[in-house]
Amino acid sequence: MGERVEDDLLGDEVVRDPQTFYGRIRERTPVHWNARYHSWLLTRYDDVLIGYRSPAFSAARTGPLEERPEMAEASAVLSRWMVFTDPPEHTRLRRACTLAFAPRRVAMLQPRIAALVDELVRPLRPATEIDLVADLAAPLPALVIAELLGVPTSDRALFTHWSGELMTLVFGSLDRADRHERGRAGLLALRDYLAGVVAERERRPRDDLVSVLLADGTLERDALVSTCILLLFAGHETTSGLLGNSFLALLSHPDQLRVLRGRPDTIDLAIEELLRYDGPAKLSPRRVAEDIRLHGELLRAGDRVLLVNASANRDPRRFAEPDRLMLSRADNPHLGLGYGVHYCLGAPLARLETRIALTATLPLLPRLELRSEQATWHRSLLGRALRSLPVAVGA
Ligand code: HEM
Predict the structure, then answer these.
(1) Is 375 exposed, middle or buried (0-12, 13-18, 19+ CB in 10 A)?
(2) Nearest CA among 237, 261, 270, 244 for reference residue 382
(3) Among 33, 62, 89, 310, which residue is least crowded by beta carbons within 10 Å?
(4) Is ligand 1 within 6 A of the CB of residue 170?
(5) Is the distance from the beta carbon of residue 274 to the nearest atom of ligand 1 less than 6 Å?
(6) pLDDT at 74 exceeding the cut of 90
(7) pLDDT tens digits, 214-263
(8) Whose C-alpha lies nearest to ligand 1, atom 41?
(9) Ligand 1 contact, 390 CB (< 6 A)
(10) How many angstroms is it from 125 CA to the middle of ligand 1?
């Protein structure tokens, strides 16, 4: 067994600066047992890759929830999320979505995303103080995923609220004692809401993702509604995290921002580096499916494992000068979007949205004065996202 210490993964200091904490573990105990969370932490790049690749690690992890009678309905929905299943069921669920996320289909969203970004960025100019999270990073991905799915954008306040409640359950925000109850309520409200949207599209198909999934016909109704919830949830919580973290990284590195403004054509490389440097998917959880030995430690079937993407992405064994933000970094096989069969399905959409949003805000950024001491982070086990990022707009 590794060092048995009570590490609070959601302590204020670790939430604010996870890199110092995970970096220490990465160097001392690469396979680290965390007694508080009953989990093994894998923090080195090569070990996280093993976690993603090896069948000894399973993505199916809703079991503990299924054992709680009051969570039965919620776990029935979550157990159909592709991200919580292993092949062959995973293959079936994911395949049904490949058409909907084909690069050509995602690229068709470009003009609509650009218009949404414009609507959000234009009013930012005359303000004296803005919150880059509340004013841009949070609303944009919610609007985009609503459009993509075919959910009325006017219902945004409703579904972002439910999705925020669900985040406490799925992303493990332990600052809320009632996280199971709130997460359950948010999930079931989303289920009923999206079941209504699906029924409506069945009667009157449109050119949206729900209609594409219905036309595909592979998924039975429950799986289809579960998939829509997953897409709505995954499609906005993470992308808003990336946007917020990227604004903070760019404003904290004026030299890098200057280079990017001079070479806006390098934006795609920059986005990969922003995903590596401070991406929003801090950890990916797994369960050990069969006993496996790693660095001398025996991980037993059933044990929980946290693949720490954030730490793998700063592993000096894989990245040169890992703690430096280098927007032109070329050798960058980061794990910010996961790896393997569960590699982020929405990656092309996340990249497109981020490219459009950052490109539109680049001219504004040098006039923004960071109030970093006022930036606050969500207390989330899996996610790394700012709650707010207040900035002053200069002349
Ligand atoms: C910057 C934004 C995003 C980040 C950092 C991100 C990150 C990730 C990561 C790390 C995984 C792997 C999880 C695991 O292996 O346990 C994942 C899977 C997934 N993501 Fe994303 N994601 C982003 C945006 C999106 C968007 C926009 C969508 C959809 C509209 C989306 C949909 C999904 C889905 C459906 C999966 C599950 C894929 C599977 O299990 O096969 N993501 N994402």
Answers:
(1) buried
(2) 237
(3) 89
(4) no
(5) no
(6) no
(7) 998 999 999 999 999 999 889 888 999 999 999 999 999 999 999 999 99
(8) 342
(9) no
(10) 32
Q: Does residue 279 line the site of ligand 1, with CB under 6 A?
A: yes
Three-class secondary structure of residue 351 per DSSP: helix
234 C-alpha vs ligand 1 centroid, how far in Å? 6
Token pair listed for 160 = 């972002």
Our answer on whether the CB atom of 248 is closer than 6 Å to any ligand 1 atom is no
pLDDT more than 70, % of the chain: 95
- Contacts with 68 (C-beta within 8 Å, 6 or more apart), sequence order: 75, 180
Q: How far is CA 228 from CA 14, 268, 323, 330, 393, in A?
A: 33, 28, 37, 35, 38
Q: What is d(CA 323, CA 242) in angstroms, rounded to the nearest whole number?
A: 18
What confidence tens digit (pLDDT) does each residue in 44-61 have?
A: 999 999 999 999 999 998
Residue 239 CB–ligand 1 contact under 6 Å: yes
Q: Which residues contact 234 (CB under 8 A, 6 or more apart)?
A: 83, 344, 345, 346
Is residue 43 a contact partner of residue 22, using CB atoms and an 8 Å limit? Answer: yes
Distance 83 CA to ligand 1 centre (A): 8
DSSP string, 35-91: TTTTEEEE-SHHHHHHHHH-TTEE----HHHHTSGGGHHHHHHHTTSGGG--TTHHH
Instruction: Note the pLDDT of residue 4.
Output: 41
Cβ-based neighbours of 343, under 8 Å, separated by 6 or more: 337
Domain extent listing, the chain: 12-393
Ligand 1 pocket test, candidate residues 94, 307, 344, most atoms within 8 A of CB: 344
Give, for ligand 1, the residue of 79, 209, 238, 335 to mutate: max count of ligand atoms closer than 8 Å to Cβ: 238
Confidence class of residue 297 from pLDDT cuts 50, 70 and 90? very high
Place of tokens 């599209």: 201
Level-2 CATH architecture, domain 12-393: Orthogonal Bundle (1.10)
Instruction: Give the span between the Cα atoms of 256 and 261, in whole angstroms.
Output: 9
